[in-house]
Fold:
Amino acid sequence: MNNSKVLALKYRPQTFDQLIGQEVISETIYNSIKSGKSANAYLFTGIRGVGKTTFARIVAKSLNCENGIDNLCKDNFCQHCESIINSNHIDVLEVNGADKTSIDDIRDLIEFSRYGPTSAKYKIFIIDEVHQISRNAFNGLLKILEEPPQYLRFILATTEIKKVPITIVSRCQRFDLSRIKSDQLFQFIKKITEKENGRATDDALKLIVKISEGSVRDALSLLDRGLMSNSDGEELDLKKAQKIYGYFDKSSLIDLFENLFKGDEDQVINSYRKIYEAGVEPKIFLNDFLEILYYFKNISSIKLDGTNFSLNDEEFNKISKISSELDPKDLILFWQLTIKAIDELDIVNDPNLYVEMFLIRLMYLKDFKKADFKDVLIKKDTRDKESNEQKISSNIKTVDQIKNIFQQDKPTPKIKSQDVTNELIIGSFEDLIDLCNKKKEIKLKYELENNVNLVTFAAGRIEIAFNENLDKDFIKDLSNKLYEWTYKRWIISLSKKEGAISKKQEKQINKNKIFEDAKKSTIYKKVLETFSDAELIDVKLNEDRKDD
Structure:
């Protein structure tokens, strides 16, 4: 192993038993490969740094290792394992979804897959961050994912599983990699510290675990940074770790809270300035402020054990004592305002001064009357009033409906005040299609006729069945246009109900029926008697007889 490598690479797992926190998934995949029942395609999903790409490479090694899966290479690598680790194996192609986004890239991949492996048993495609490839590229993958050649395997990885089409997910064996538990991660980086002959206190390592949020890669990167800061065998303690990572002693923040609830403005501002002067950025401060606020509100349900490194015993007891004297309503209000402050931090010229004024404003809230809260709470745009009313009414929808996310908190389309008098009324689904035609919204009209399976239609509300062919922006675009045309916010929801056939299908059925009726007619039979090779191509109804 190369000692010059960063810790995240140096201690990257090479076998299933070296992976931490994913034992069930490791055992499942190991057993499937050992029994010769490996999946055509694997899909790994989870937060950054929990082992998605590592899993992909271990699976690729397990399928192609010269020593077999039971004797998978750990140190003395065979030719195949060595090449897979270095990402230069001729039969194991590792690509990033952000670089290979187009349908042409996928076509090249599929063309490459037509040829069997050169030296290994399996040809394997590893696509990292697969959610970044285009819709057309996903469509190109569908067929080969479902029925690949015997020698071909796909391994996909993503941090955003919701962006991967369900048609892709359904063709893969999906594995959700969980965050690594705090105690497991702590024991892991403690062993690494000892192997590296480093010195660090348990409190410093626990801080690393907390900051990494269950990511092994982040934890190793932070540890690497902390150990490199030491010289001459110096120990990495909590105080030094807080300074290196831009974190501060939470006890000082708890003291700030105590003074804030007492209304001691001078002490609050002085406490904050000391934290700021220690190198803590305003955004980090506010995020930690939120965390402590959470503990104040929910301290009664929090347990201190080996898996919780957020608070020590002293901090826990102090929060418990202070929280018993607080009004939960004030804490909820503080939470709302803090969220708002974090959002606004990016648009102010001086974030530091903004935070100071934010803390002062919180101190005076406890003296406000309920009616005065309106001026400090998060305000919605006045144009969202109708939207809120619609959201209230939407609570009556059945539980099997899925509210479309595109309709929530979106910017209100601009409308011309002089057009309000020309408000349109859409009484039916057919009226909507006709309106799209009149407004020359050809794309919307196409989707409505071809890919919409209507469940229910009412004024201000449309319920449709899920259709994988429906454009991903359809509901958002239709919602905006309906608001532009009617000056009302429409609720468009997806339902698990089957829904009616599309208008295109309906037209085709009617056309087929007309053809069948025409073929049964006396006129058609007489034509065939005269012209035996005649063929019915089209049927045009007499305008006077359409309703007959």
